[in-house]
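Quick question, first post here. What does this chain look like in 3D?
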Amino acid sequence: MRFDIVTLFPEFFTSPLKTSLLGRAVEKQIATVNLINPRDFATDKHKRVDDEPYGGGVGMLLKPEPIFAAVESLPILPRREIILMSPQGKPLNQETLLELSQNYEQLIMICGHYEGVDDRIRQHLIDREISLGDFVLTCGEIPALALLNGVVRLRPGTVGKEESLKAESFEEGLLDYPQYTRPAVFRDWEVPEVLRSGNHAAIAQWRKAQQIEKTRTCRPDLWAVLQNNKEEDSPTGALNL
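> Answer (accepted):
Ran it through. Tokens below.
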């Protein structure tokens, strides 16, 4: 899968692309990551990529010419999506990561900066906007890296045990269950006995109950969505959780 990241700071990605999961995925050619600096496409002698907004206001905006030129310099794969990383976008979630990992061959990510971008970029170039949440960061590189990581780890061959992807938080709308490792007792705190019992049916039942309780307690918003979805799917409106 090809990833093209339009960024004023390519060096931001240098270490992450060489380490851990992303590094292995790049080495195994599961993901190809290309970094494109829009300054290379600026036409004035100062290589300016930003300017003051019309009508006045605080801060600077990314100019359209270098961004359009940078994106238009890239090859076009049959299934591609152009994404602007922006606090105005749809909050990123696991469902979006799964959709992007399965339905596209090429993702182009534009990293915002300053006070934002000329709106012609938003209107005529990008396919969607994605945000990490309802807060503002200093740059779009941070959410771009999060998106890259989240999509790549879902690609076949990236994670050693792919079945583990099916049992983690958000895959079924529930948070993950508590997990423990050795020692069985640490500072008088014991690992739950059921996990040491060897009874796989009982362990599965305990884990599901823990997921439900954890989601109800920690993320009532997720629990409410799950209840609504179950009610819509059930002819009687009854929940099986």
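The domain at 2-152 is CATH 3.40.1280.10 (Alpha/beta knot).
The mean pLDDT is 91.
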